[in-house]
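Researcher: I'm comparing several assemblies side by side, and this is the next one on my list. It has 1118 residues spread over three chains. Same procedure as the others: predict the full complex and return the structure.
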Amino acid sequence: MSPPEVLRLEGVSAGYGRVPALHAVDLALGHGETLAIIGANGAGKSTLLRAIMGEIPLLGGQIRFAGTRLDGFDIHARARLGIGYAPEGRQLFPMLSVADTLELGAAREPASVRRERRSEMFAIFPKLRPLRDTRCGLLSGGEQQMVAIARALMGRPKLLVLDEPSTGLAPRVIAELYASLSRLLDGGLAVLVAEQNARAALRFARHAAVCEDGRLTLRGPAKTLAEDPRVIAAYIGMRDATIWSAAPESDEA
Amino acid sequence: MRDRLIEAVFLGTLLLLALVITRSGSAYLAQTLFNAGLAILLAIGWNVIGGFTGYVSFGQVSFFGVGAYVAALATTRLALPWPMAIAAAALGAIILALPLGLIMLRLSGIFFALGMFGLARILQISVSAMRVTGGPMGMSFDAAEDPHICAAVMLLVAAAALAATWLMLRSRFGLRLLAIRDDAVAASASGVHVWSVKVLAFCLSAALAAVGGALYAWNLGYLDPSSAFNGTIELQSVLMVTAGGIGTVWGPLVGGATISVLSTFLWARFPMEQQIVLGGLTILIAVAMPGGAMAALARRGVLRRTPVWAPPPAVTAAPATAPAMPDKRAPVLRCFNLGIRFGGVLAVKAVDLVAYPAEMLAVIGPNGAGKSTLFNLISAFARPATGHIVFDGKRLPPLRPERLARSGIARTFQTSRLFASLTVWETVLLAALSLHRNRRRARTEAARILAQVGLLEQWREVPETLPPGRQRLLEIARALALQPKVLLLDEAMAGMSAEEIARVHAALRHAMAGGCAVVAIEHVLPAIAPLAARVQVLDFGVTIAEGHPHAVLNDPAVITAYLGVELEDAADVAA
Amino acid sequence: MLTVITLAILGLLWGGVYLLMATGLNLIYGVMKVVNLAHGDFIVLGGLLALSLFAEVGLNPLAAFPIAALVMFTIGAGVQFGLLEHITAAGSEGELRTLLATFGLSYVVANASFLVWGSQFQSVPFLEGAVQAGPIAIPAGLLAASLAAFATTLLIHLWLTTTITGKSLHATAQSALGAASCGIDVRRVRMLAFGLGSAMAGGAGALVITLIPFQTSTGGELTVHAFTLIALGGLGNYAGAWLAAELLGLTEVFAQFYLGSNAAAAVIYIVFIAVLVVRPQGLLGQAGRV
């Protein structure tokens, strides 16, 4: 018996302007599941997440969240449905304090609820507690990413969508971040994370998919993919002989 | 052909009207035609700065007023005849615009627009305070004796101004202007002296407005500060240009003619509501009809801008003369200890880099490693906090990017920075013109490079219609047209098909055969691996490995930098 | 000496009035990066509404203040909803089109007001006496308007910094995408901000018409005044705006006294251009040029 479905994508194409950057992607994510989308820069990972959040319009296919078709839902409406989103570049409010930023994550709840959830966040991310009155713009990269995730959790989402949480972070900080994320998973939260940092993501997630040229090319349990030499090939091709020589040599005209 | 016909009809109508009005017609008709001609001239002037240079101004009426007063004073005080007074007005406006441009063009967007508005008010107040201009009460002088002649001259001047913009858009000046409007950074990377082109355009715009003001004074024989610096003139100029088509040759004519007829009609029938209607139209056009009438025509293929010049026939991809081969052993570019901070964080720290002629150095590294920042430092788009650069045996002084581009360090950008309104041909020609003053030479060179990358057949297309891979190819061609000694490629081959990569390789081999050093940032290595002699790996702003490609790519530190840490043993994956 | 002190006090009080005129513009800019070129015309319209309320119903300007504010809120929110929201282009093209739209709007508002109220200078008589503080006499109307202006600006500031709705305005200003991912309807926030900014213009007008006679064509000048102030303070910077307001008030009062009113008008524009050129980021601001 598979868990109830949270997210389903069928034949989703999307892009900027008229040129699709994402080609007929199918994907399903159940209650409490974790899926990592890994791949090199520009492979289409962010485009996929943006399409899910409604940042860019679909050119084809459909997306359902907990059974609801998302067509016509704006970003904020999707967030209200229960998708917590930590966008690329974190998109924090640099001049607002950590406490205020977290509160805004549950802007529609009454003040008492906001405060209660904020304390929960400080319990999950204890590092943030002493920083509650610090402006987000002054935080370190790792702290900022924690705030972004905590803000996304404030709305009690069923699904957490993270876009490149490890960008610009030192290895130790990445480890710390993913450790906190792992602690969240007991409550049945589903997580979809796009990562360039394959190792961190593959260790965190149960399932994974490799994104190449706007398509999901390899899928499977994260453990299996972590061993798959084709994953490295998809990244830089540095050790794969076929790819190494795939670049055209005979072009002397 | 059809376009030429329409253009001829446009200009012919103006000239015909000018001829007819000298022979017959009521004084009222003459005045109406004078107003229409003035409207068109002012719209043309506004379009030069607001449309072609991309600086929306709410104070071009400053130059209208200055021109009117200079002309009036020239006839009354210096007893100059009107033609000379009009020339003096243009000269006066240029003398004012030159220093003003140097100051005001540093501003952008709303700051420039409102700064110009403030300027108009300052001038109005100053003129009101002067005795020689008659202060707030204004001054009277001899007007044109025959309103018919006056109207005819006005129409002729408007026609001449139209012809001038038509020619401008077919000249290297117009090409540079459009490039700057579309993307000033890419323009300076193409060797365009952004600053002087902008100031020149500002002066031209000012001179046109001033001639309008002088003719206005000649027609009326009376001037006062509130009519010479009247905000309604500004509103009308803006509206006429946006209604007709901002940044087009014929937009001011179409908009100027329609709006001036409309506003004359409104003034006669609904004087109270006139400005409400004009303001409402401005809103409507801004919200619902960007680009105005000419954009609607251009979508149907009518009166599109024709490219500047054309490639010469029968071009071969081979260069006319083989350049002298530099010593391959002596590095052409050496960077020592380069570093820069962004907001307290060292984005690049103490990076050394060496590039040899006729050789490719690949710079790789994960996202945010500082590769693009390093390029910005080398190409003078950012100033290093530490370190220095030796290029061609000499230590580089702080230069503007365009100077550097002309002297032999060319670059491409990570995200495509093409000029939206320039064709494939013009894009490359622009760069070639930065190097060769001789027009024939530039055309030959541009065509040769386009042939080499296989884009010559698509020379009429604009970037928007090219697939992404071809767009990148065009950017490389633009950089190659500067005949660089060092070519910096920033992820130039991302998103290219195998066939396009092959073309880039051919072009790069060709350039390297001529002695050019290539430094290429790439994220995905296979695209350049066959060409790279050496690889340098950056992570967190420092060099973590350097050497022969195979050795570097088997370095566990490099693999970790790419794939991240966290798996127990990097060697497991690497094996 | 006494003259100088009196002028200084007057300048500071005028600063408060200027602040009220500019805060709305600052708010709109902060959230949407839009400079509403019809702002001055909104101020004039608010003033003329107060004038009619006074002439027709005998309402005093302080009572007309909330009514003018409410009317202008509706107009402002309507402008955002019906016009500006439809300009979707990003970057400099979006900026240009928004500018042109509000440029046109300023002519529409000014000339529509002209149809209703005519072209003569008009004022509302209110507290025409003077408050005597020792040897210094301060016009009572100016004092009242200035105090009301300070109070309003302070209230708005508190609302912005302490309530969740106020914070969502800040949030939208700093990252619209971040705000939307919090479930904040940024389109509604923008309507609210434009409405609120316009309401502040209207309210300011109701107070200022008791001090300066308004003509329907005064609007453009007031827009530049307000813009000068927020540019001087650093766009979107509220503390900077307050400082700039006081400086501008002082400059204008002193220039008017020593150089005459014509020169004073020019001084404001010269300060404006000098600020743009020398310190485009404003007195306290960091980000400046758009």
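Model: For your comparison table: DSSP finds 23 helices and twelve strands in chain B.
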